[in-house]
Amino acid sequence: MKQIYMDNASTSFPKPQEVAEAVYAYMTGVGSNIGRGGYASAYAAEEAVFAARQLLCDFFGGEDAKNVVFTKNITESLNVLIRGLLRPGDHVLVSSMEHNAVMRPLQLLGRELTAGEEAPGNAITFSRVPCDREGNLELAALPKLVQPKTKAVIMTHASNVCGTLMPLAEVSAFCKNHGLLFMVDSAQSAGLFPINMQILSIDALAFTGHKGLLGPQGIGGFILREHMIDKIMPCIVGGTGSMSHTESTPKFMPDKFEAGTLNLPGIMGLAAGVRWLKQRGLDGLRKHELVLTEQLMAGLQDLEGQGLLHIVGRQDMNKRTSVVSIADTHKDIARVAYELATEHGIATRVGLHCAPNAHRTLGTYPTGTLRFSLGWHNTAEEVATAIAALKEVLGHGV
């Protein structure tokens, strides 16, 4: 049975052939570490990593390629940013749609404030900016949640549960007016929607390589504006290949945040994925995915009209990604996902998607949703097959 892959919000698949070729070329033709050797292959690896930094800096509108830091994934990036930035007494704002990559570091550091509560003493605290049942941010609530100790807004660009986009430009303007830092989780939008850190006044941007940027797993990173470098303490320190005469951590970029051996094959693959995106053009790729999303939504709306399911989140094509969730099927949604996979070869994701409060916001907690997430490789025929398969699975026993 041929698999129809519709789980790109988890990881994109398939990758462009160029990505695999770049990883293979490094593994078989270069192989050396960077900052540790004075020979040709080590210099070649160093040059390739610098080129990857410059490529990502340009892609995201960063200020300087040296401020592109590589990590193993966006979860590590967000941990470095959150745990490295916040100090006792700080307060931050997040949306009610955040992934656990943001919420677990915050919960580990401190606690959530109840409505109207002032930040106590030296505790690190956070407040959630509410979103409606479609995942739309309630901008009017922002001013009411700011406190004297509020330091930053930390926010996802797009929901990994229902695909709703957050209004980055409006939130950025709010941060600028209130003297707040603005940190963005781009896990579900990078590679599909253009993000320019300078235009949007984003102070720190976290990205992952293996989703919309089409790179391999195990590579991610973050980009800082220049004024952020001294505000964030590194979470992991050790050998960098630089300043080896001292046991002190370098203060210059990117060494301050890149202790240990980097995932060099991953960096090469990520760079190849970004180059492929630039060659194909984000606008065309996004249009392709959203045309398929509209087709999928139309089919789901037909099934919703028959009482077989409920579509979660926005049903229009504005301000959304190609992530679509359903709930309230007469069958257990885990069973539905299993039958789609085993009987029809359709790969989806079911559950709470590491975002429990997003599901509380959307009214789908604790059951969760069945999520379809389309990618560059999907076709109209595959979407039609998925709709027909879902109708068949849900029609059993009706």
Q: Helix and strand succession?
A: EHHEHEHEEHEHEEEHHEEHEEHEH
Helix amount = 25-40%
Average pLDDT value? 96
The amount of beta strand, in percent, is 5-15%
Low-pLDDT residue spans: none
Radius of gyration: 22 Å
- Count of individual helical segments: 11
Structural class: alpha/beta
Major sheet: size, sense and barrel closure? 8 strands, mixed
Name the strands of the widest sheet in spatial order: 2-9-8-7-6-3-5-4
Q: Give the number of DSSP strands.
A: 14
Cα distance spanning the termini = 26 Å
- The outline comes out as globular
What does the model show?
It is a single chain. 37% of the residues lie in helices and 15% in strands. Strand 6, helix 6 and strand 7 form a beta-alpha-beta unit.
Keywords for this structure?
alpha/beta; four-stranded antiparallel sheet; 11 helices; eight-stranded mixed sheet; 398 residues
Helix and strand layout, with pairings?
Blueprint: E1 4-5, H1 17-29, H2 40-59, E2 68-71, H3 74-85, E3 91-95, H4 100-109, E4 111-112, E5 125-129, H5 142-145, E6 150-156, H6 168-178, E7 181-185, E8 204-208, E9 220-224, H7 264-280, H8 282-305, E10 310-312, E11 323-327, H9 333-344, E12 346-347, E13 349-351, H10 356-362, E14 369-373, H11 380-395
Parallel strand pairs: 1-12, 3-5, 3-6, 4-5, 6-7, 7-8
Antiparallel strand pairs: 2-9, 8-9, 10-11, 11-14, 13-14
Helix pairs in contact: 1-7, 2-7, 3-4, 8-11, 9-11
Quick recap of the structure?
This protein has 398 residues and is an alpha/beta fold.
